[in-house]
Amino acid sequence: MENKRFLLILGGIGVLLLIPAVPMQFSNEGNWKPFDFKTMGFLLLGTGLLCVVVLRAVKSLIARLIPCGGILLVLLVIWAELAVGILG
Predict the structure, then answer these.
(1) CB of 41 within 8 A of CB of 17?
(2) What is the pLDDT, as a whole number, of residue 52?
(3) What's the rounded Cα separation, in Å, for the pair 66 and 57?
(4) What pLDDT score does 54 carry?
(5) What does the pLDDT read at residue 2?
(6) Which residue positions in the chain have pLDDT lower than 50?
(7) Cα gap 80→87, rounded to integer Å
(8) Which residues cross the membrane (predicted)?
């Protein structure tokens, strides 16, 4: 079961990183560099693994949703800061 979750996370990261990669092949609108893909892959992997740790450690549905929601919120804030600099 643990390997399936890990493979699902890796597959999801691959699919999410294809979203900006495919249009970049046909247009000059997106300009992600390899560093950008590595950074986003690291953030997505860290988020996925932290959520798996929460899912393994906590049994109650509500107690799972609150930390995972917080982890996702932190991901979104970091992503927005890296993208457009919303905090400063």
Answers:
(1) yes
(2) 92
(3) 13
(4) 93
(5) 67
(6) none
(7) 9
(8) 39-58, 65-87
**Which among 70, 37, 38 has a CA at the least distance from the CA of 51?**
70
CA 59 – CA 68 distance, rounded (Å): 13
List all residues 6 or more positions away from 44 whose beta carbon is below 8 Å from its beta carbon: 12, 13, 16, 17, 75
Q: How many domains does the chain have?
A: 1
CA 70 from chain center: how many Å?
13
Contact 72, 47 (CB under 8 A): yes
Question: Which amino acid would we find at residue 1?
Answer: M
- Distance of alpha carbon 82 from alpha carbon 88, whole angstroms: 11
Range of the domain at 14: 2-84
Q: What pLDDT does 12 receive?
A: 94
